[in-house]
Amino acid sequence: MSAGGQAKSADVLAEGFRLWLGVAFCLALAALCPGETASRPTEDDPDFDPNWNWVEQCHVQRSHRLSDFGTFGSLLVTADTQSILTQPSAGKNRTGASYVASLKQDLWSDAALIAYMEGGTTYTLDHIIGDSLGNNHLAEPAAFYIPRVFLLQHLFDMKVQIVAGKIDLTDFFDINRAANCEIVQFLSDSLVNNPTIPFPQPGIGAGARFVPAPWLYLQAGTGDASAVATESGLNTAFHDHNGNFGIFEFGLSPSPSAHPGTYRFMVWYDPASPRDDQSQDNHGFAANFDQVIPGNLTLFFRYGRPEHPVNGLSDFVSAGLQLKEPLPGRSKDTLGCGLAYGNGTSHDETLIELDYNLHLADRISITPVMQVIADPAEDPDDRTVVLAGLRAVCVF
User: Fold this and answer.
1) Dihedral through CA 122, CA 127, CA 132, CA 137, nearest 10?
2) How much is the pTM?
3) I want to staple 185 with a disulfide (CB 3.0 to 4.6 A). Which of 58, 181, 285, 293 is the partner?
4) How far apart are CA 210 and CA 196, in angstroms?
């Protein structure tokens, strides 16, 4: 082996040793720390705010009362690092940080004004790997921006909910119990949302949800197809040449109490967008299932098929599981394993992710993450790329 090859091998071993030393440290803390920590709220959590309800609470975590006039807020800070362990890009790494501040102001009966302020680093390893499934969903488009400012109204004892303003449609559609949140669940883009649904960036939009029975809901939403998250949205909305993205979803929950599960089905329409150089309208179908089973396990499944390829994919499927309390006494910890497969326009791509979300203290969690990406879409040599990383989350 040449001196250069030996040096690269040494760099790979050193980087891998440092990352797995961090993993071992986290697992040792899991065995030693009895702490319970802030986690994604659920209906049985005393900090769960039912007034959010329809809105995905991944970025909200725990909201704190800021005043006696119905004002609530929270701040979540995330830091993460990822490194490539395989040649020829071994040692390439990404270290970033992001934050999400949320503010909710109660208004008249069953109504609230909600705003998010976000920001952070923009760099990911996708451009080095050449993958289409996405290895890190934490990257932010700017150091500071306001992606959401909207009004949420509940009607008829929460059987009807309406939202309007600057919204992110992924807060309301394609949600999943086990594979939805890059903060405490999976890190990969393709295990957070379905990459064959061309959701627009946060912009001017509206949606409505109807829950006629505990086991059934129907909802529809629309958003500016040319929106840019870092802009107000008014500069592109209401222009005829831009068009609006539309999505309809209905969900079935056969057993809402014993072992809850939701089976979601979606159809969507995306107009031709001159901003994205999209020459033709597009539409597609998607499915999204999650099911809790005995043994603290939640299984998940996603499928998507667009009429024309989206993100270079003509078919997509993902599946996996989330295990609560993987170690005895660690009731807030979760172990996640997910697989995503995309049938690309050039060739197929597969991603596997394994992570352990370790709750250290009341407001701190750390997650070691391992990813394997086989046949990245833009890699002519069809290599298999292995990445390892750590994610830390602090909630205020």
Assistant:
1) -20
2) 0.86
3) 181
4) 25
